[in-house]
Design brief:
The complex is a heterodimer of chains A (315) and B (380). Chain A is built from 13 helices and no strands. Chain A is mainly alpha-helical. Chain A has a single domain, classed as ABC transporter involved in vitamin B12 uptake, BtuC, CATH 1.10.3470. Chain A is globular and about 70 Å long. Classes of the chains: A mainly alpha (315), B mainly alpha (380). Chains A and B meet through helix 4, helix 9 and helix 13 of A and helix 7, helix 12 and helix 14 of B.
Amino acid sequence: MTIVSLTMNLLVTSIAGATPLIYAATGELMVQRSGVVNVGIEGIMLMGAFIATVTTYFTHSPILGVFAAAFSGLILACLLAILTLKIGADQVVIGVVINLFSLGLTGTLYRILFSNKSAITHQLPMLFHSLPVMSLFTIPCVILVWWIMQHTRIGLEIKACGEQPDAADAAGINVILTRTLTLLFAGMLAGISGAYLSVGYTDTFAPAMTAGRGFIALAIVTAGRWNPWGCLAAALIFGFTDSLQFEGQALGLDSHYRSVLHTLHLYGIAGELNLTRLPYQLFLALPYVVTLLLLIGSSRKVAAPANLGRVWRRN
Amino acid sequence: MKLAADSPATLPLTPEAKAAEKYNIVKNIVRGIVPLITYPLFSILLMAITLLIFRFNPLKVMPVIWDGAFGGGDIGHINAISETIVKATPLILTGLSIVVAWRAGLFSIGGEGQLLMGALTATAISHLLKWMSSSLVIPLMIVGATAAGALWGGIAGWLRIHRNVQEVISTIMLNYVALYLVGVAVEGPLQEASKNGPYSSLLPNSLLFAHLLPISMTNGIQTRLHGGVLIAVLAVPIIALYLNFTRQGFALKLVGSNIRAANVAHYNVDAIRMRAMLLSGGLCGLAGVVQLMGVSSRLSLEFSPGWGYNAIPVALMGGLTPLGTLLSALFFGALNAGSSNAERMINTPSVIINVVQAVAVMLIVSLRAWKRRASEGNAE
C-alpha cells in the first residue's frame, strides 16, 4: 500500500469516525450555551440508531430512516425538557436515566423484532474512498451552528439564557422556551448522529452500538471550549484515534511492536505472558483514554456558561 | 430542609419540640413504609403493561416470573429464593456504591469499570499466588479487588477535584478502559492454558465461596447461594451507620446536599469528595470479587451483564438510602431471577425487565422532583 493511499484512508476513516461526534457535539454545544447539560445524548443517539434501522428495514429507505431518527431524538429531548425544565428534576440524573431507558428499550425491541431474522438493511451511499455521504453535511452543520451563535439574535438570546438567566428574563426573553427549543434542536441532531451509526456508516444496528460516543461528544464540547470550530477540531482528533483501530494493521504497528520486543530482549517474557502480538484492545481503548487526556488538559482553564446545569425558576 | 433532618439534636428541647420530633419520627416511618408497598405494586403493574405492549400475555408470563423468583410449580421455594438473593447480591454492593457517591453530589456512573477492575485484580492475584495457601490468597483477593475498585473510583475523584473533569464523563471513559484492559488480560496473560477462548481458567474450588445451603435442604438441587452474599448483606448496615451516625457520613451528605454550607463551615470538600469516590469504587471492586468467587469463577469479557449500570435504578428506587437499596436490589433480584425463568420456560426475553426498570425509575425520579417543587411552591 502506498503512502498516498494510506494517508487517504486514514483521513477518510478519521472523518467517518468524527462525523457522528460532530453532529452530536454541535447540538450539545448550543444546549450548554443555553445553560442546560444534556447527559442523555448517548441514549438519544442509541434510540436514533435503532429507529433508523427499523424504519429502513420496513421502508427500504435509509433517508426516511434518518428522518425518523431525528424525530425520535425530538421526542426524547421533549421528555428531557419536560422533566428538567418544567418539573425541575436534576439534569444529570434525568440524563443518566434516559440513557438507561434507551439501552433497555432498544435492547429489548432488537431482541424481539430481529430474534430470527437479520437486521441488515440498505444503507446510505458511500462516496470516493468510501466516505459516507452524511459526512458531507458536517461542515454545513458546523457553519450553521457557528452562524446562529455568533451572528443571530437567537444565538445571543441562547447565550444570555446560559450566562444570566435572570437578566435575560428581565429583558423579555422566555428562558424556558429558549432552552426547550435548543434542547429539541440538539435532540434532532443527536438522533441524526445515531442514524449515521446504523444506516450512514454501517448497515445494521447492534445493542449498545453507540459505545460511549454520546459521552465523548460531551467531552468534545468541553475540549472545544463551547466553540463550533473547536468542537470540529476535537472531533477530528477522536476520529483519528478511532481510525487507528482500522488502519493499525495497514500501518504495520504489529511488526513494529515485535521488533521493539526483539531489540529490548523482551520477546521471551512476552511469550510467557501470551503477549507476542500487539493487543488490539489497546486501540479500542485509545479513544476513551484520549478523551480523558483531553479533558484533563482543557477542563480547568475554560469558562463554562455561568449557569450551566442549574435549575432556573422565574421569580 | 435536609440539613435539619440530618443534624443530630444536641440542643436541649422544649416539650413542644419533643412532641414535634416524635411526630416527625412517626411521619418518617410512614414515609419509609409507603414506598415498600406502592413501588413493587406499581412496578408489577408496569411489568404487566410492558408485557401487553410487547404482545405477551401477562396472565401467562407473570406466574412464571413469580415461580422463578419465589418458587412454585416445579421450582422449590428455597431454590427460587436463593436464586433471587444471588441475583441481588452484586446489585446490593454496586447500589450502595451509587448511594455513597451520589449522596456526596458526585454522579458517578463508573460502577461497571470499578467492578471489572476488582474482578481483574482478584483474578491476577489468584494466578500469581498459586503457590500460596488459599486461606491467605482469599483475603488478598478481596482486599486487592476492593483496592483496585477504589483506585478506579479515585482516579475519577482526583480528576474532578484537581482538574475539574466532570465525573459523569470520566467514569464512563474509565468503564471502557477497564473493559478493554479485561480484554487484553483474558486474551493475554490471564488466558486459560489451552488458549481456546477469551476467558481465564476456572478458579480452583479452594478459592470459591462455600455454598451456604446443603443439598438435602433443596430437593437435591444445589443452589448457587454462596458465602459472598453475607459480605453484601453485612455491607448494608455498615454503610447505613457510616452515612447516618458518623461525622464523616454527615459531612459527605452535607457536601452533596448543600455545598455552600459545607464551604462556609470550613469542611475540606476536596477530601470528602475523594473519600466518597474511594469508598464508592471500593464497594464496586468488592462486588466484582464477590461475583468472581461466588458465581462466575472465571474472568471473561462477558463477566458483568451491566451490574454497574443497573445499580443506578436500584439505588434511585431505594431513595439513595442503604436500606432502601437493599430492598430495591432484592426486588430487582427477584425480577431478574423470575425473568430468567420466563426466558427458559416460555421464551419471553428477559431483557424486558430493563424496560420496566428504566420506566419505573424515570417515573419515580420525576414524581419526586414534582413533589419537591410542589412543596417549595407551598412554602412560598
